[in-house]
Design a protein that fits this description.
By secondary structure, the chain is of the alpha/beta class.
């Protein structure tokens, strides 16, 4: 399936990839959005066609107010249903009761535990039963992602992942948002290129690499939560 898709999509631009997946997979395809600028591009592309692709987001309970702002603006603009997946209440209660509300600062293991409870477990529920998972990943967002391809098999989740913007630059994304007046998170204008949970994200300085503001207290090589782990 992977090789056939690579052959079929060879030379396609992002819009053509979205149209192909919508046509060939429809309700068996799902798109995950965190309302970052890349995801807003894909939402715009889905919103301009009569697509059956499902859209979901992970509501971790620790998001920025600005993220809820762009979430509302996105619903108003595109009229696409966006299903919210929350962490299991009993898991959050157990974690916070045992280790407190900020255990993720104490070690990489604790941070990954929090990511698992708030993001990984809900993700598994969100993509269950689908054949194709569309993401907004770009190749230059982190060192780990440069080793990926625009179509790949996610062996951990047993699903095909497709990244329509994989070869786009940040400038490409910003130009698209401007050209089509796409709503986006205002934090991007305040030095936040990558936006996750509020306690784990901060603005970066000029010259810092893309994900320097995510889990800034950790070593650069560890800056993934596990949603897009490469096995």
């Amino acid at each position: 399936m992977i090789e056939r898709l690579k052959k079929d999509l060879q030379g396609f631009d992002a819009q053509q990839i979205i149209q192909y997946i919508s046509s060939e997979y429809g309700q068996k395809a799902v798109f995950s959005t965190s309302f970052g600028i890349e995801d807003q591009v894909i939402t715009h592309l889905l919103g301009t066609i009569n697509s059956d692709v499902s859209v979901f987001t992970l509501e971790t309970g620790r998001l920025f107010p600005e993220t809820y702002y762009v979430w509302n603006r996105t619903l108003e603009r595109y009229k696409l249903p966006i299903k919210a997946y929350f962490p299991l209440a009993e898991d959050v209660q157990a974690l916070v009761t045992e280790k407190g509300p900020s255990s993720f600062y104490e070690s990489v293991e604790n941070r990954k535990e929090c990511c698992f409870v708030r993001k990984i477990e809900p993700l598994k529920r969100a993509i269950k039963g689908y054949d194709v998972w569309i993401t907004g990943i770009r190749a230059d967002q982190s060192a780990n992602r440069e080793d990926m391809d625009f179509i790949e098999w996610d062996d951990l989740n047993k699903i095909v992942k497709i990244h329509p913007l994989f070869q786009w630059s940040l400038a490409d994304v910003e130009q698209f948002l401007k050209e089509y007046n796409v709503p986006y998170n205002p934090l991007h204008d305040k030095g936040f290129p990558s936006i996750g949970c509020q306690p784990c994200t901060r603005a970066i300085q000029p010259g810092d690499y893309f994900r320097a503001g995510r889990w800034w207290w950790e070593d650069k090589s560890k800056k993934e939560c596990g949603l897009h782990a490469v096995k």
